[in-house]
Amino acid sequence: MAFTGQGLSVNFKTTGGIGLYISLVVTLTSFFTLTTGQQQPPQTQNVCSSRFEAALAPQCFESYGVNFTGVIYVLSANRSGGIPPTYTYESFLEFLCSVSMQDNIIPCVLGQMQQFNSTQCTEQDRLGVLGRGGQLLAFMDAICGAPCEQEATQSMIQCYAAIDVNPDAILSPNASIADDKYTIVGTNETQYENFCNNRQKLFSCLSPLTATCPGLLERLYTIGVDLEAMEAATGLLCKDKAKFFEGLNCFTTPTSSVTQCRQSTETNMREVLVGRYQTGAVPPSKYMDKLCESKLTQVDCELQAFAQSCDPDISELRTSVECAILPRPCKDAPAFKQVYNGLCKKVTTPTPVTNRPTVPSGGPGKVPGTSDDNGSNRDDDDDDDDSSACAVAMSMSVVIVSVVLNVLW
Fold first, then answer.
1. What are phi and psi of 2, to 5 degrees?
2. Torsions phi, psi of 9, nearest 5?
3. pLDDT tens-digit map of 148-166
4. Does the first or last residue of the chain, that is N or C, have fewer Cβ atoms within 10 Å of its Cβ?
5. Total-model pTM
């Protein structure tokens, strides 16, 4: 996967995580020359992007008490700018990344991007505004993420690789909370049997991440992935192969009711994404709530549609799986408890597994019964997978924000 911005082209398959971060930062700091106090005279064709840059610091940072030279210092890996004298690096980062400050800054930046994304600007200039604003938001998302996310994402990919299962079912670049998770165990018998036969190994490998990197779990929730919930749901799916494939046949047979549900879901999801990544109408702290609202509406609609076209026992399986696999915020938050209970009152969802084989020393990313330090069970080209995993982890925030912005604008 490649990310291309103005003056920037990075291939995530071949670029290591730290190198990617530094190269993007250098590009970013070359865009924002506000801290020098010596901006170059704007070229006529770039007047909008120059005005956008000039407005960012006073409008979206300093108006909320955030010193922009400190922001540049953080984003540039200490290469430019400086931390305000009343802060340490850690306290400034905590201030910048606080929920209330993110809810102020991010919608403001998006609002400025909208203001300068007008017909008065040339197409090239509008792309410049999008590139500058998108990269700034992506970096803020990255630096405010949990430091453990890179290693934890790599561990997830290694857990899947150890049982020869493709993680794209939950970690594809286009993953969404609206995705149909019924097929996470596979779409044919070979995939199904391999996943189900190795299911316990997989979740024994993944389970330590719940404790070691809760920050990653929060990010995974936004694409509909809850590791504990997924373990419970796949237990249901792996219980009866014949019923699973009977359900798969029914659920993949299009009906007008299901089609209408999915069209409605697409509209709802676009509204949420536009609010979060384009207009700023959905502040970061409300994003998960909006996703849950859309997902619960989707589940309600589709369960009713499947009940019209599938056998009752198959519909019951679908209901059980949907109720089990919903991310924790969509089940436990007081705002959704009543809706969730209404959807799931007729089925019993499995409780999370607490007793499992001990994970070997080395923690997450190690499957019981496989070698670790020597890597004797790994192929030579697994180094490429590790490099890719590292890049995917480090660039996850950049990809999510940048890709969404490019799609929406």
1. -115, 145
2. -145, 120
3. 988 999 999 999 999 999 9
4. N
5. 0.78
